[in-house]
Amino acid sequence: MSVEAREQLIADLGRYRQQMSALLLTVTEDQDWQPDLDNWSFRYVAAHMAVCDSECLQPRIKQIAAGENPTLELYLNSGRDFSGFELTQSLSDWEQTRQEIIEFYRALPEDKLSLTGKHQSYGAITVEDYLRIMVDHDRGHLQELEEMLARYEQRK
Question: How far is CA 128 from CA 6, 72, 81, 123, 153, in A?
């Protein structure tokens, strides 16, 4: 990956987190609002994003970069109870973990970038592959959050 592409990936990781956090901070007073019973509340969205980075992305890219060639199962936390997570704390935790991920990736030597793990859904996966998947994950949740906020505003 070129230096420019690497910097773009870093920028995307930061930008999507910042955009989502900014939107979620506008609804802290109503963090448990959800569009319907089939969709998450704002609290759950924030907690999901934070734990995806801390429980899945961060440890997995470290395993890959360490040369462990891990076998990685599909990570899902959709059935998890996030009711005890505070929205603003989740956003703070997410910011810290995402920054640690970015710093880890930025400092990763070139020879570590070709190491892989075996993902159940994606096959052979490098650190950069995993980071791109997370950018796509962020982008998808940002779009869902924008739609959710539009519904939230319409109910007023």
Answer: 8, 15, 30, 14, 37
DSSP-assigned letter for residue 71:
E
Instruction: For 117-129, write each residue's pLDDT tens digit.
Output: 999 999 999 999 9
Question: Please, which residues bridge with residue 118 across strands?
Answer: 71, 124
- Identify which of 131, 154, 145 has the alpha carbon closest to the alpha carbon of residue 21: 145
Answer whether residue 76 shows pLDDT above 90: no
Q: Report whether pLDDT(20) > 90.
A: yes
Query: In the numeric block, which tokens belong to residue 6?
Result: 């690497």
Local confidence band at 64 (pLDDT 50, 70, 90 cut-offs): very high
Q: Which domains does the chain have, with CATH numbers?
A: 3-154 (1.20.120.450)
3-state secondary structure (DSSP) of residue 110:
helix
Q: How far apart are CA 132 and CA 136, in angstroms?
A: 6
pTM of the model: 0.95
Structure tokens at 115: 């190491």
With b for 16 or more beta-carbon neighbours within 10 A and e for fewer, the 58-76 pattern comes to: bebbebbbeeeebebeeee
CA dihedral 120, 137, 86, 106 (to 10 degrees): 90
